[in-house]
Amino acid sequence: MTIRLIPFAPERTSIAPHDWPHGSLWRRLIARFERWRMLSRQRHQLAMLSDETLKDLGLSRADVIQESERPFWDDPFSR
User: Fold this and answer.
1) What residue segments make up the domains of the chain, in order of their start?
2) 3-state secondary structure 15-57
3) pLDDT tens-place string over residues 54-65
4) Which helix (H) or strand (E) holds 11?
């Protein structure tokens, strides 16, 4: 009778994306959610800028309102 020992890795509490079945699908999905999160955060930060800063950037408050009202999934670079 042979006993095989399996190493225990306490720091690994979940399966890494590269170990998932259909890993590339999961990686693309996670990347998409991260992109949406980043867009939402950037639009919120843009809305918090002062009018003077917006003027320096060549933007008006109306431009910022229009951009900040876009849904998070509306990615200008995914077209």
Assistant:
1) 24-68
2) CCHHHCCCHHHHHHHHHHHHHHHHHHHHHHHHHCCCHHHHHHH
3) 999 999 999 999
4) none
